[in-house]
Each structure stands twice: as structure tokens, then as C-alpha cells.
From TrEMBL, chains A, B:
Residues 222-236 have a biased composition (Low complexity). Belongs to the transcriptional regulatory Rex family. SMART domains: CoA_binding. Residues 26-65 bind DNA. This is Redox-sensing transcriptional repressor Rex.
DNA sequence: CCATCTTTGTGCACGCGTTCACAAAGACAT
DNA sequence: ATGTCTTTGTGAACGCGTGCACAAAGATGG
């Protein structure tokens, strides 16, 4: 998953494990699809397959919410949709601001998945005066001078940062000072926030790098010594003379 | 997390734990910043702070790669940059295709974090004939009819899916059939792929929902601090949702 | 009302990841 | 050389998450 979390005091958010919370949206999506097809009930096996998880895991996840199933039958789709929505807090309206209306910010503003789940884009904010007033996704962009006022007027508690890395921390500080307590960060930076503020991070580059690692592993071990071409001029250490240019320091793995 | 298929065989990817692999890009970014400031060495404590993790965790992570530190001094920045880059496979060039050039796909194409880390956008692919030939981020969009040929001609093994949900699985199947073995999925769908293919998922909506959960919990603690408020989720089957400060709202359903 | 069948809910064991705490290793000063 | 000081590398304990396997619960049919 694409996420990182800043220090959480392991409060185990009300008895529901973090891992379970992270899967609830997945279940909710699968259940919504079933609901649209007017499927009345679903077994843990079927729902687990639709959500891409293990059925035992799904049952255990639901057990944290309560006993909402009927043995021998399964789960009532509509009822479960409601319970999970309520548990996630999606039965209320969450005004959200997006700061940084570049390519990514515009994409986020246009992303349908937000509005369809109780999230409402309350404002788009950018530091570029030339952007001010220009509508993106039907919403006029506002200048970041008014950030605090926008937050307060709309009662925003969730902010999305889609600025360049350098601007992320200052923007974050201002958001927090204005009252935002949850931040979704797309900028490739570690944000530092006071206690009580949640930060989740989505980093496109990191995801690709993790894929590259596995891809390299799949490609085989001989690839490491074979291709020498694209190395980005990172000089190897001068001291250790016994190690060749591409000679590997013995990795931890035996074989 | 790596959301491959149902239960992958717990691949301890070459002795390096998944959790460690997921943090390596984080360390690499912090180290790169230090390198640009010409900092020669760094202690585990300093680097851990910069990466936003625990120093013991960082040292253990590095221990999986080998012993690259010097006791009493710390780690050589340049050397560590090289080692991590090599471990992640970033010393080679990875051609990547992006399928689905909507708002998000265009944002990804323009995203600088790709090119700066050994990833090269080899092609942009879209199903809309009107898009064909139109340049995005300086790269002409190609029609999806040519997907297989593009993959093969460029030796692409990593694909990024930024299509609508409905198109994701068919696109995924074609990518895999053409030889792609790693997929970064932005579409809100569970992709099913054969063994040996890695899928990582980035879901903007899910991240926001997780934030909403914590946000709701924080709001509930404030409102009901001291009362029975901490009642575990085993509330009765009635709709006694008393957590939110505002009243109960019927479940929001996507249109 | 009883038997059978289906599916949930969960106790339990196991493995991974995190954290602590400290010995070992090297730098540095004398 | 020797002692001191700093920092790494890691053994060990612990906690969380996962998956198995099964008993309990309810539906269903006779």
C-alpha cells in the first residue's frame, strides 16, 4: 500500500486494528457494487473474493465491528454497507481542501471517487496568483493567502497537499494552525506535525521503486553483474579496494 | 502493502523483509538530499529523523543489506546512496508505460519523480482515438490498439494503469499477456493477475476514508470524553450512532 | 420436532515486524 | 598503546496480524 503514517501512539483506534480499518473501504467498495446489482446477501467467501482478501480475515475484520452476519446465510448487503459507512464516518459530509493545483491537484479535483463517498471538495488553493479565479473541475481556484479563512469558514478538518516538495511543510503548518487535523500528503517529503494530527502519504515514486525491486529480483541474479550501463554516476567508495566496480559486497542472502 | 493475488507465498524477497524494502526509497530520498548538500557521513539517528522512522529500525533495515556503517562515525552518504540504489534496481533504466491518459495519467506523465529515479516513460497509451498523437508531457499519446507492440518494442516490464475502473482489468490482462510483470494500479478495482506478476495499488479514495475514520474518532473523543463513549463496536443492531457531534445521516451512496 | 447442512464467529498457533538494550567495533585523544 | 567515547549491529522479547480449523448458530427440509 502506498501509505505511511506518522507516529501513532498505538492507541489501536477504539479496538479496531489499523489493518482492519485499512480494509474496510475495500469491503465497502465491493459491497456497493453488490448493492447496485441488488444482491440481497453475500457470504464471506464471495465477498472476500470480490475484495481480494482471505475469507477468514474478512470474517475476523467484521467481528471487530460486531456480529452482523447470519450463520448459514451470510451478510445482509445493505445493512453492512450502512454499518461500514457509519464506522468509517462516511455518513457525514467531509469538506476537503486541495492545496497545490498543478497536474496532480487538478486530477484530484476531478477525481470522482471523492464526491461519491461523502467527501466534498470545499476549495482549491494555489500559490500562483495567475491561477486565482480560474475554474478547475468547476471550482474556482483561490489564492493561498486566504487559506486560513477558507479552512475556518468551511469547517475543514481534512486537507490534501499536492504541492511541490519544498512547499509542503509550510503549507502543512498553515493547515494545521488553521485547524486541519488530517492530512493526505502527495508531496515527496516527510511532514512533521504535532501530536493529534494524522498524516497519510501517497508517494508515486516510492511505489514504482518497490516494484522495481521485485522486478529486478524476478529478472534474475545475473542481471546485477551483467548490465553496467545506466548507473547514474554514483561514485563508489574509494577505500575498499578489494571490491570490484560491480563486485558485490556479499548480500545477506545465502542462496 | 503489496496487494497481489489472494495470499502470495510470503515471499521473503531475497532475505530482505517487505517492510524494509518499502522503507528503502524513503532512506534513499533522505540520503539524496544529504548528498546534494555534500554531507559526507550521517548517523543512524540523524538519518532516521530525516526519514521519519525509528533509528533502531533503520539500523536493522541496513543490516539486511550488509554492514555499511562505521561504528563511532555513521554511514558514508555516497556509498549508501549507491548501495540502496543498486539494491532497489535503480541503477538500471526502467521503461514504463502509462495506460489511460486522463487527468491522473497526464499528471503521472508530468511527474518528475519518475525520471529522476531511473524510470523512463516509454509510452503513453489511451483508448480514445482523439487523443492519439496529441503530446502530453512532450510524449505523443498512442492508441491502445498498439499496446502489445509498444510493450514488446520497448521491453517494458512495468505498467501503470490510470484508466477508469471498468477498463482496468482488460488493460491489465493485455499488459500481462504482452510481457508486463509489474503493475501499478490507480484504478479503484481489485486486479486479478497470474502468479509471478506483482500488483501495487494506489487508491486515493481509500486513503481519504481511512483519514475520515480517524477524524471521526478524534471528534467523538472530544464530544464524549468521559462518558460511556469508548463502547466497543459491539453496539446493538439498532441505529444508535451517537458518535458524531451531528445527528445521524443516512448512508451516502455513490450515484 | 429432529436431522442435516451451510456459514459465521473465534480460539489458537505461528510468523513477521518493531523495539529495547547492550556488547562489539572502531575513532580519537593522550 | 591504552583508555574513553561514540555509534553500529544484533540477540531477544514482545505485540500485531494472519490463517487454520472447528464449534456454535441458524436455516432448511422432512
Amino acid at each position: 500500500m502506498a501509505t505511511g503514517r506518522t507516529h501513532r501512539p498505538a492507541t489501536r483506534s477504539r479496538g479496531i486494528p489499523e489493518a482492519t480499518v485499512a480494509r474496510l473501504p475495500l469491503y465497502l467498495r465491493a459491497l456497493t457494487a453488490l448493492s447496485e446489482r441488488s444482491v440481497p446477501t453475500v457470504s464471506s467467501e464471495e465477498l472476500a473474493a470480490a475484495a481480494g482478501v482471505n475469507s477468514a480475515k474478512l470474517r475476523k475484520d467484521f467481528s471487530y465491528l460486531g456480529s452482523y452476519g447470519t450463520r448459514g446465510v451470510g451478510y445482509d448487503v445493505e445493512y453492512l454497507v450502512y454499518q461500514i459507512s457509519r464506522e468509517l464516518g462516511l455518513t457525514q459530509d467531509w469538506p476537503v481542501v486541495i492545496v497545490g493545483i498543478g497536474n496532480l491537484g487538478a486530477a484530484l479535483a476531478n477525481y470522482g471517487g471523492f464526491a461519491s463517498r461523502g467527501f466534498r471538495v470545499a476549495a482549491l488553493i494555489d500559490a500562483d496568483p495567475a491561477m486565482a479565479g480560474k475554474p478547475v473541475a468547476g471550482i474556482p481556484v483561490q489564492h493561498s493567502d486566504d487559506l486560513e479563512k477558507i479552512i475556518e469558514d468551511n469547517g475543514v478538518s481534512i486537507g490534501v497537499i499536492a504541492t511541490p516538495a519544498g512547499a509542503a511543510q509550510p503549507v502543512c503548518d498553515r493547515l494545521v494552525a488553521a485547524g486541519v487535523t488530517s492530512i493526505l500528503n502527495f508531496a515527496p517529503t516527510v511532514l512533521s506535525v504535532p501530536d493529534g494530527v494524522d498524516v497519510r502519504k501517497v508517494d508515486l515514486s516510492i511505489e514504482l521503486q518497490i516494484l522495481a525491486f521485485h522486478e529486478q529480483r524476478k529478472a534474475g541474479e545475473e542481471a546485477a553483474a551483467g548490465t553496467d550501463g545506466g548507473a547514474p554516476a554514483v561514485a563508489a567508495r574509494s577505500e575498499s579496494a578489494d571490491k570490484g566496480p560491480d563486485g558485490d559486497v556479499p548480500a545477506v542472502m545465502p542462496a
